[in-house]
Amino acid sequence: MAETGQKALPKISIIVPVYNTARYLARCLDSIAAQTFTDWECICVDDGSPDASGAILDEYAAKDSRFVVLHQENGGVSRARNAGLDVARGEWIAFVDSDDWVEPETFALAHEAAAAHNADLVQWDYVFEDNGKRIVGLSLAEGPFSVSKNATYFCPSMCHKLVLRKLIYDNHLLFPENIRLSEDRLFSFQCSLIARRAFHLNRALYHYTANASSASHNMTREMILEEVEVVKEMERFSLDFERNAVLSGGGV
After folding, report:
1. 3-state secondary structure the chain
2. Which domains does the chain have, with CATH numbers?
3. For residue 156, which of 5, 45, 50, 185 is within the disulfide window of CB 3.0 to 4.6 Å?
């Protein structure tokens, strides 16, 4: 865990892994800068981008000290997210992908919901967009939820969640760096299952961009096999969680 020094701790650390998304990056960062909730830091991890992404990140950091930039050799999105987790100082952790964007009230509403419902995980609805046109979305009923009791509320992505930092660090959770597709599925499942209380906001606050260069559009046989391993690991984690819950007398 990183040293805090004398700088005041932000409430929310927003981690943005960046690779070759110069075309979309300003829109993403502008949407974060425009948040009505202002007590945040945004940790942008440049994963060895060969395009102008790194320079764009440095420009934002020079203008707003809440933007923190890490430059590293290309190691994949999971390694970039883990690098962000390693230096994050906020009480809460959120993730945004660099080709996506968030509504201005996203983190204000999420933080309010966490406080109002004593939740250590809050998630919200999202939409997928192609050239600004909505093509699909998620809309679930608002309220408390438990993925162990209602799997409908399990969302594989970490990009529309606010998670208590303590939940992640106390359970030593990290993104699997050997997975290239659905790399956040296991991490999201672990957070959702471990969460003491979770709450869903019925607001479409996150906007995914249909990006033809992303890994999900360029699947290989190896990636499919990796995803199978993720599902197996999720099953193992779930069984261990249930076993530990029974042994501790807490039930599931």
Report:
1. CCCCCCCCCCCEEEEEEECCCHHHHHHHHHHHHCCCCCCEEEEEEEECCCCCHHHHHHHHHHHCCCEEEEEECCCCHHHHHHHHHHHCCCCEEEECCCCCEECCCHHHHHHHHHHHCCCCEEEEEEEEEECCEEEEEECCCCEEECCCCCHHHCCCCCCCEEEEHHHHHHCCCCCCCCCCCCCCHHHHHHHHHHCCCEEEEEEEEEEEECCCCCHHHCCCHHHHHHHHHHHHHHHHHHHHHHHHHHHCCCCC
2. 12-247 (3.90.550.10)
3. 185
